[in-house]
Amino acid sequence: MSAQDPSLITDNEEAAAPYLQRSLLEPRALFSTLLSGAAWLTAIIASIPLFSVLYGLVIRGGHRLGLEVFTELPPAGFEEGGGFGNAIIGTLVTVGIGALISIPFGILGAVFLAELDSDGRVAYVARFCAKTLTGLPSILAGVFAYAVVVLATGTYSAPAAGVALALLMLPTIVLTAEESMRMVPAPMKNAAYGMGCTRSQVIWKIVLPTALPGVLTGVMLAVARAAGETAPLLFTALFSNYWFVENGKAELMTPIASLSVLIYNFSGMPYDNQIELAWTASLVLVLLVLLFNILARVLGRKKI
User: With 223 labelled, which of 34, 59, 134, 291 sits at a CA distance of 20 to 30 A?
Assistant: First the structure.
């Protein structure tokens, strides 16, 4: 039926219309408004530290942002200028190695927990261990990688740092991916089974594609956490003032630079140039972590 002509509205309808309007003085509406205002106020208060940190970093380190800091090596002692291009690449390399280790094992573990043996004793123990690892101090992950990789290879290296970061990333990926797979509607899986699909086909063709936004959210959050870690890298990657690529060949089995360790080293130096670079590196690292968190939010907005 098309929109009703206003001239055809009866007196009874006109009398009933005011009751359909929302009154702000009505108790439930007033209570809802107060709760909404309280939620907005809490969100604003919670965001004050974030914006204050960003403001401080922009003021203290924003003026050094330029091509120089992304392409040059860290300065030494009384030198002026310089940059931390090797630290940016080193951070991407170590986090990338950690992601290559943790993402496959994390997704496979989530498939086991969500689809293969969700109520079994092994799944219970694995889920308990994953939840315990979420609270593992990062320095202990560095000590573990030091004992397993550094002592075994006899050198600090990017793979050792990747193992430490993978240990920190793994529980986030496992738990987030498992929850996303559990949210896949059962009728979708039952329909696939009814069409003759095997369990592996249902997992790879139905469950994983449907749960992909949630899985990617967990991956991005894990990567964001790993990018800002310092303690594990002190035990595994150490630091280097040089590029890890020489003569076109990547030397991964050597100490490698990272943004977090550079900030740690330069912030305690008595030289203004190094302190300014530490502020600029902090700004770059925060923006990098913020980018990963925004990507996680964007990817997670897609509903299953």
Answer: 59
